[in-house]
Amino acid sequence: MSSIRGFDNLHKRDVFELVRSVAYERKDVILAMTINRLNFEHIETFVREVSMWHGGGVVFSFSTPYVGDQQPFYLKDEQKEQTVQRLLRLKDVYGDFIVMSRRALELLRPCEVSRWSPQCPTWAAKSIRSDGIPIERCIFGPKADCSRCGCNISTSMVALGEGDRETARMLSLPMRLATAAAPHESIVASSQPRRGDCSSNP
Ligand code: SF4
């Protein structure tokens, strides 16, 4: 557990406990984990811990660099491929608690990103800064490297455009969870076959 408890040195706060206090037993709160070199080894530990909070679930994205940014903070393609396989295994175990479809997860693979990013569905969402000024192109701004994009909103929109039924169901899930009075019942196993064959990858 200590491996996933961060301390925000900038604001001098225990961020993990702060998030827990907000998200605990809140079906209308979905956690978002942005995966990078600092945290990618702790994804399973993180999911195991937050699954005990009985909240709305968790989604994943990869940190998206600016064009030309080669900082080691960002995962390499091979690491992303392996990480997506781990996310798919978590999806098999945690089911709807991972609030993304299998296809939306698969579309985070670099070999998939190279296919969809030139036609990224930026029309699906308008991004606006806290001061009200619209952000050009997408939430990451015009300098972001589309070929290394890790945006889970975009992968969900692409999967929806492919007609993926699980994605349609997952996109409506947060609202249903928030309004449901029944206890959390999302930990399900699934044997649904995986799509998204990138021939040179597992
Ligand atoms: S960086 Fe922005 S525009 Fe480019 S692929 Fe990602 S979400 Fe789309």
Span between N and C termini? 30 Å
Low-confidence stretches at least 5 residues in length (pLDDT < 50)?
Answer: 181-194
Percent of residues in helices: 25-40%
Bound heterogens, unique: iron/sulfur cluster
Strand order of the largest sheet: 1-2
Describe this structure in words.
- The chain is mostly helical.
- The protein has one domain.
- It is 36% helix and 5% strand.
- It has helices at 15-23, 43-50, 77-94, 102-106, 110-116, 152-161, 165-179, and strands at 31-35, 58-62.
- Strands 1-2 form a two-stranded parallel ribbon.
- Helix 2 links the parallel strand 1 and strand 2.
- Helix 6 (152-161) crosses helix 7 (165-179).
- It is globular.
- The two termini are 30 Å apart.
- Residues 64, 117, 120, 122, 137-138, 140, 144, 146, 149, 151, 154 line the site of iron/sulfur cluster.
